[in-house]
Write a structure and sequence with these properties.
With 420 residues, the chain is α/β, with parallel strands linked by helices. The chain has 9 helices and 15 strands. The protein folds into 3 domains: 50-140, Muramoyl-pentapeptide Carboxypeptidase, domain 1, CATH 1.10.101; 179-330, Collagenase (Catalytic Domain) (3-Layer(aba) Sandwich); 339-415, no CATH class. The longest helix has 18 residues, at 2-19.
C-alpha cells in the first residue's frame, strides 16, 4: 500500500515537472535557433575610393609598386601616387577598352568591381626599362612595409607579357609529363554543391583541356596528397593554409598556384551546369586549370583566360586563341584515324518531334569519337568502344563508310579489308 502511494506521488511530481519546465529548458526550446542555420555569406567590400583603387592596381600587377600578394584586398599595401598612379590607371583602362584618362571615373570603378580571378593580370618590366622614371613612392599605410615572399611570385606570369594580350607572350610550361593527377581535397568541399556534382564538373573542366592537347588528367583518390599534381578545394577568408585571403562574394572568386593548387571562394554563389544564374563552377574551373598549366590572363574577347568573369554562353567552349596558346606549350594531339565520316540522320526528341542531326564520326582501332557539329566539340565521355556504340559491324579497324540516303533509302555500309 505504501509502495503504491509512493509510486502515485512520483508520477504526480513528474507530471507537474513536465508542465513547468525548468528555466534552462525554457530558454533552450525558445531560442532563435540561429546556431542551426548556416553562417551567412560575407560580402566583399566594394572599391569605391582612390585608396581602394590604388590597392587594386598594386594587387593585380598594374602598378610598378610591389605589393604583398598574400594580404587581403582590404589589407594595407603600398600604393602608387601622382603620375605613377595615373600611368597604372591608364594601362588598366586601355586593357579594359575604356578611355585612358588616368582618372578614377565611374566606368573604371565598375571594371574594378567586376567578379574576377585572383591571379595578377601581369608583371611589369623593371623600373630601369620604363620609358619615364616613376614619381617618388609614398606609402599609403603608416605601418612598415612587409617584405614580399619569394614563393608568392610563382603565381605571377613571367616578365615581358603584354597587358592587352598576355596569351601570346609570357607563357611557360608548368609540367613536363603528359599524365597529370588531380583531387578534390576531402576537407575542402563546397558547401553549396554536392560532392558528386563538384567532382563531375571538375572532370569536365579537365576534359576540355585534354581534348585539345596530349595531356591526360586522372582523378586520384588514393595516392598520398603530396604526390597529386593538382589539388582543388573551397574555403572562406583565410583558408587551407593559403597566404592569399579571400575577400567574400562579389569580387575575387578563385585563384591558382603554379605549384598545382586551385582554391575557390566558398562565399561565392557557384552553380552547376544546369543553372543559368550565379557563377558557373565549370567556367571558373577551366580558367584556373589554364593558370596551373601555365597560361596567364589575356584580354582577348572570347578567351576563357580573361581575368573577369563573363556569364556562360549556352554553348561554352574554349576559344581558338586558348587552344593555340595551350598547344604552343604542350603540343597538339597526333595520330591518324582509320576512317572519318559525316552522318546526317533523323531522330525523334522527347516530344516526338523529328529532328535532323548532323554529326561527324572518327574511328581508330576499336574506339570512336562523335563530334557534335552544332556544339563545336566532341561528345562528353568519348571515345567509346565501337562494340558498345555500333552493333553488327566489325569491332575494330573500320576502313571506310558509305551512307546511301535518298527519298526511299537510308542505308549505311561499313567496309573492312585490304585493297587488291
Amino acid at each position: 500500500m505504501l509502495a503504491a502511494s509512493v509510486l502515485r506521488l512520483t508520477l504526480l511530481l513528474c507530471w507537474l515537472a513536465a508542465l513547468q519546465p525548468t528555466q534552462p529548458e525554457r530558454l533552450f526550446h525558445s531560442r532563435d535557433r540561429s546556431d542551426l542555420e548556416p553562417s551567412p555569406l560575407s560580402r566583399a567590400k566594394p572599391i569605391a575610393d582612390l585608396h581602394a583603387a590604388q590597392r587594386f592596381l598594386s594587387r593585380y600587377g598594374w602598378s610598378e609598386v610591389p605589393s604583398v600578394w598574400g594580404t587581403s584586398p582590404q589589407g594595407s599595401a603600398e600604393a602608387p601616387v601622382g603620375s605613377t598612379l595615373a600611368q597604372a590607371m591608364r594601362r588598366f583602362q586601355r586593357a579594359n577598352s575604356l578611355p585612358a584618362s588616368g582618372k578614377l571615373d565611374s566606368p573604371t570603378l565598375a571594371a574594378m568591381n567586376r567578379p574576377r580571378c585572383g591571379v595578377p593580370d601581369t608583371r611589369l618590366p623593371p623600373q630601369s626599362a620604363l620609358s619615364t622614371p616613376p614619381a617618388p613612392i609614398i606609402p599609403y599605410s603608416p605601418r612598415p612595409r612587409s617584405r614580399p615572399k619569394r614563393f608568392l611570385q610563382m603565381l605571377l606570369p613571367k616578365a615581358g607579357g603584354q597587358h592587352e594580350d598576355a596569351t601570346d607572350t609570357g607563357t611557360s610550361r608548368a609540367f613536363s609529363k603528359k599524365t597529370l593527377t588531380w583531387r578534390l581535397v576531402g576537407e575542402a568541399y563546397s558547401s553549396q554543391l554536392s560532392v558528386d556534382e563538384q567532382r563531375y564538373i571538375f572532370r569536365l573542366a579537365f576534359r576540355m583541356w585534354s581534348e585539345v592537347t596530349p595531356l591526360d588528367f586522372r582523378e586520384d583518390l588514393t595516392a598520398p596528397g603530396a604526390t597529386v599534381d593538382i589539388k582543388l578545394g573551397f574555403g572562406r577568408g583565410r583558408h587551407l593554409g593559403c597566404p592569399r585571403v579571400f575577400d567574400g562574394s562579389g569580387q575575387e572568386f578563385a585563384h591558382a598556384w603554379r605549384l598545382g593548387d586551385i582554391h575557390f571562394d566558398d562565399d561565392e554563389h557557384f552553380t552547376p551546369l544546369s543553372s543559368d544564374t550565379g557563377i558557373s563552377l565549370l567556367k571558373v574551373a577551366v580558367h584556373e586549370i589554364g593558370h596551373v598549366l601555365g597560361l596567364p590572363h589575356t584580354y582577348r574577347v572570347g578567351s576563357i583566360m580573361q581575368p573577369n568573369y563573363i556569364p556562360q554562353d549556352p554553348v561554352f567552349e574554349l576559344d581558338w586563341s586558348d587552344r593555340k596558346a595551350i598547344q604552343r606549350l604542350y603540343g597538339s594531339c597526333e595520330g591518324s584515324f582509320d576512317t572519318a565520316f559525316d552522318w546526317i540522320h533523323k531522330e525523334k526528341n522527347q516530344y516526338g518531334e523529328v529532328r535532323v542531326r548532323f554529326n561527324t564520326y572518327f574511328f581508330r582501332n576499336s574506339w570512336y569519337w562523335l563530334y557534335e557539329n552544332r556544339n563545336n566539340r566532341t561528345r562528353y565521355g568519348d571515345p567509346l568502344q565501337i562494340l558498345t556504340g555500333w552493333h553488327g559491324i566489325p569491332p575494330q579497324n573500320i576502313d571506310a563508310f558509305v551512307h546511301v540516303w535518298s527519298r526511299g533509302r537510308d542505308e549505311r555500309y561499313f567496309f573492312k579489308g585490304i585493297c587488291i
